[in-house]
Amino acid sequence: MIHSRVESTSSTDPIGFFEAASGPRFFWSTPDRLLTLVGRGELQVIAETGDDRFARSAASWCALSQGTAVDGESGAPHTGPMLMGGFSFQAGLARMLPWRKFWSSHLALPESLLTSANGRTWLTTNELVESKLGPVTPARVGDRGQVDVEPPPSRASALSTGDWEALVQRGVDEIRSADSGVEKVVLARQIPLELDRPAEVGKALRYLCEAYPECYVFAFGQPGLCFLGASPERLVKLERGIVSAGSLAGSAARGRTFEEDQALGRAMLASDKERNEHDLVTRGLMEDLQAAGVEVIGGSGLPTVTKVRNVQHLVTRIEGRAPSSLTVLDLAGRLHPTPAVGGYPREAALRAIARLEDFERGWYAGPVGWADRHGEGEFAVAIRSALVQGSRAWLYAGCGIVADSDPEREFAESELKLRPMREALAGD
Fold it and tell me: For each successive 10 residues of the chain (428 residues), what is the average pLDDT?
């Protein structure tokens, strides 16, 4: 049983609240900063692995949150007990550095939660009166809370421009082959970065929140490590029975002038390649939602253009009505990985990624977000992200590859997508 107390607070600096944490911490902010959540400490951790990790996490949270008591301002939005954290891209435990210290899922009930919403701020403090899961022990969290000592990364350890373009061409060739069964595959880049000094995560978060107001900004911090990013992509939101998802695929650069910017957006809308890539993502999302029992009520229209600081995308908003039995964790498990970060069809695309990529994605392109005691919540897709350890960082971005993709253009697109974290961490 969880006992929570909710109180209004005069604190107006969620990032400062995050920076002040000495232990595990989590930061999550929606586009336009309409909602910001910051969790500190871990009262209980749900850490599951395997193909059924989402369903098992949902079942564990349901058991833990039964009989919850909330005192104080119990009606304040997005307060009270909730899980905060995320999932890795792949279901198994990571075997390679730098991700070996991360579980394939890590959802924590924080000791304290700061909620900033609707111009007000609340502090929730949680107490575990009786846990049906048992205490958080080393046997549960394992030694993944410890940090390996690693040699500094070098840019030479990343694929060269030519090598990555050759990798993209291999992906194109595989899609074009008659027996591959792959219509789209998303290939990612991992870029090691050595900083002049230890990364200032709080400073990076402030930059991302200000420079990328259209994006979700997130950070998942454990002692010695922090995974953070600015993602324009929602995976799923469940609120009052309404499911909201988004198909975000198809990219173009921003223009130097308003006229050029508009022309690039129109060209993207008119591009057969970009529309095909986008339509595959929309189709995959709608198929998965319908298979989960969601009554889809929107998403069949033409895509529109959404713009962030240095790139613009095609987007289709998808909504539906969920059966009462589905939680946001269930839905995240049904949708992940979407064709926007894996490919289409899913299983064939994932096999292609395993053959083509030579690194583990870890939490890159996995779901990050929160779930409340009612089963509602929201998860973003952790793209445009980086893992930071002291003065070392690993940056991640990917591109959707279809039959008529051009390797040089895909490399240029990946450079645009790497820019937010380069700017945030190194000031490039």
Answer: 92 91 94 94 94 94 90 89 96 82 93 94 90 45 42 53 93 88 94 93 96 96 94 96 93 93 94 91 94 87 89 94 96 96 94 93 97 96 96 94 93 93 84
Rg of the Cα atoms in the chain = 21
Contact 46, 130 (CB under 8 A): no
Residues sharing a CB contact under 8 Å with residue 354, sequence separation 6 or more, in sequence order: none
β-bridge partners, 216: 231
In angstroms, rounded to a whole number, what is the distance separating the alpha carbons of residues 79 and 124? Answer: 6
Residue-range domain boundaries for the chain: 2-134+161-426
Identify whether the C-beta of residue 183 lies closer than 8 Å to the C-beta of residue 344: yes
Per the CB < 8 A criterion, the answer to whether 245 and 318 are in contact is: yes
Catalytic residues: 184, 233
For residue 355, give the 3-state DSSP assignment. Answer: helix
Nearest CA-CA partner of 318 in 236, 239, 246, 242? 246
Within 143-212, where are the H helices?
161-176, 201-211
Q: Classify domain 2-134+161-426 by CATH number.
A: 3.60.120.10
Please give the full DSSP string across 63-92, using - where no structure is assigned.
Answer: HHHTT-EEEESTTSTT-SSEEEEEE-SSSS
Tokens standing for residue 274: 């970009």
Tokens (6 digits) for 164: 């990555």
Question: Which residues have C-beta within 8 Å of that of residue 295, sequence separation ≥ 6?
Answer: 320, 321
Are the CB atoms for 229 and 36 separated by under 8 Å? no
Block residue for tokens 């909602």: 35
pTM of the model: 0.91
